[in-house]
Design a protein that fits this description.
- The protein is mainly α.
- The chain has two domains: about 1-190, Tetratricopeptide repeat domain (Serine Threonine Protein Phosphatase 5, Tetratricopeptide repeat), CATH 1.25.40; about 330-480, Tetratricopeptide repeat domain (Serine Threonine Protein Phosphatase 5, Tetratricopeptide repeat, Alpha Horseshoe), CATH 1.25.40.10.
- It has 23 helices and no strands.
- The N and C termini lie far apart (about 70 Å).
Length: about 475
């Protein structure tokens, strides 16, 4: 609220030169006193005098403009919007009032109205210098990425070194999924202002989640924390850094193709800009799980033909589906981070306790359920592990890591049909998931009645991973089971 209002005040001050300070009437006297208090930052007293002035100057758009700004500064947005709207109604060509109204609307979530008013302001010869920048922010709020890009580029013609505009262009490019161009914009932002901390954070997110440049992302996360040690996003950033360090350590110890199915965390949304002139900070995506999957890929297919039929199949009774209620994610993250530390230290009991606290703080925290499931599995308790995998999928039905680990645990516990169902859902979401193909094929290969399905999935796996260490055994099995 505060930074956008400072912009509102800057615009209001443009009108000071036009004020007639004659004290010939009571209304003009009150107006002059209001201006004096306004200059001193005593907005409540200023508002009282502007209101008194309007008792005899009802059609004074200038007084209404100042009154509106005072109400905004006093935390009365409804009154501020009402005053500014009345000022614009009285004088549609009074640009300061229309501009202030647009910023107030943007601040109050009325982005479409803000766009309409800023489009009236921008062509005016008396438009504030950052009007196009504010128009770009308003367009971002309504997801009009092309128009936002055009507005920011126009603004750069008059302010070529504006770090805020360059940062916003990076966000827009990321939203348009042009990640290479987004990287260029963030680099230009940092070159224009090496102390612009938000650009380092945005660039780190981009490198981490979209460009696969983990070492560079780690360096930029560190720079951001050095520059913004008290940032509200510091815990999320530390969690991301922890994940990268772990991934780099695992990669250094393992061959290029791991035995485990590849981790596939849900793609976080690109960073969003906040409507400030000084900095446009991204909305933090939910941190990804930092505890690795502990399940191994299914073994190669059996060399011998399967038996004529399988014994009676187990069918799992799933947890009762319920609506999960969002809570305090910030509080939940504190417990989540502690749980991760305990889990990495091998303290499963401590990890379970903290993950439970994270879930109590926010029942929609899918990754807390997922880590809790892994912890229970490590403790040799498959039933609560399966329940928490299920709850992770209630919280986030697209959580592929949770679904894959759940399927493998179901398979291990003998719930074959349930495991097949989970693998099938993974393949519905991504038909090119080689790990899911080989896993479901191994289950179908156990029954003569489903040999054709097993062949179909093994052949799909070979098309996707022809050089897999399992390829030779799979080809031998295919030759034996035509």
């Amino acid at each position: 609220m505060h930074k956008p209002r400072r912009v509102v005040l800057c615009c209001a001050l443009l009108a000071l030169a036009a004020v007639g300070c004659s004290r010939h009437t009571a209304g003009e006297n009150h107006f002059a006193k209001g201006l004096a208090y306004y200059r001193e930052g005593k907005f409540a007293k200023a508002a009282a005098h502007f209101e008194d002035a309007l008792t005899t100057m009802q059609t004074n758009a200038l007084a209404l403009n100042f009154l509106g700004v005072c109400h905004l500064e006093e935390g009365q947005p409804e009154a501020g919007l009402r005053d500014l709207q009345e000022a614009v109604r009285l004088d549609p060509n009074y640009i300061p009032a229309r501009y202030n109204l647009a910023l107030a609307q943007l601040d109050q979530g009325q982005a479409e109205n803000a766009v309409a008013n800023l489009r009236e302001v921008v062509p005016s010869g008396s438009a504030p210098v950052d009007a196009r920048y504010q128009l770009g922010l308003a367009y971002m709020h309504v997801s009009a990425w092309g128009q936002a890009e055009e507005a920011f580029k126009h603004y750069l013609e008059s302010a070529p070194h504006s770090a805020s505009a360059l940062n916003c262009l990076g966000v827009v490019a990321a939203r348009k999924r042009d990640f290479t161009q987004a990287e260029r914009w963030f680099d230009q932002c940092i070159a224009a202002d090496p102390k612009f901390a938000t650009a380092y954070l945005n660039l780190a997110y981009l490198e981490h989640h979209q460009l696969g440049q983990k070492k560079q992302a780690l360096a930029h996360y560190e720079t951001y924390l050095d520059m913004s040690p008290k940032s509200q996003q510091r815990e999320d950033v530390r969690l991301a850094m922890l994940q990268i360090n772990q991934e780099l350590a695992v990669a250094a110890k393992q061959p290029a193709r791991a035995v485990e199915p590849p981790a596939k965390p849900t793609e976080p949304p690109p960073p969003k800009a906040v409507e400030t002139v000084q900095a446009a900070r991204p909305v933090t995506p939910e941190p990804e799980t930092v505890v690795p999957k502990t399940t191994a890929a299914p073994p190669p297919p059996p060399a011998a033909p399967p038996p004529p039929s399988l014994p009676v199949k187990k069918v799992r009774t799933h947890v009762t589906m319920k609506r999960l209620t969002p809570g305090n994610r910030t509080k939940a993250l504190v417990y989540f981070n502690e749980g991760v530390k305990f889990q990495q230290q091998g303290n499963v009991t401590g990890a379970i306790a903290d993950y439970d606290k994270a879930i109590a703080a926010d029942a929609t925290f899918a990754k807390a359920y997922y880590n809790l499931a892994i912890a229970y599995r490590s403790a040799g308790q498959p039933e609560p592990a399966m329940e928490n995998y299920e709850l992770a999928l209630v919280a986030d039905p697209h959580y592929i890591d949770a679904r894959f680990n759940y399927a493998i645990l179901l398979q291990e516990q003998g719930y074959i049909d349930d495991a097949i169902s989970q693998y099938s859902m993974i393949l519905q979401a991504d038909p090119n998931d080689a790990s899911a193909h080989v896993s479901i094929a191994g289950l179908y290969a156990r029954d003569r009645a489903t040999i054709a399905k097993a062949r179909e999935h093994y052949q799909a796996f070979l098309r996707l991973s022809p050089n897999s260490p399992l390829a030779r055994d799979i080809r031998r099995w295919l030759d034996q089971n035509r």
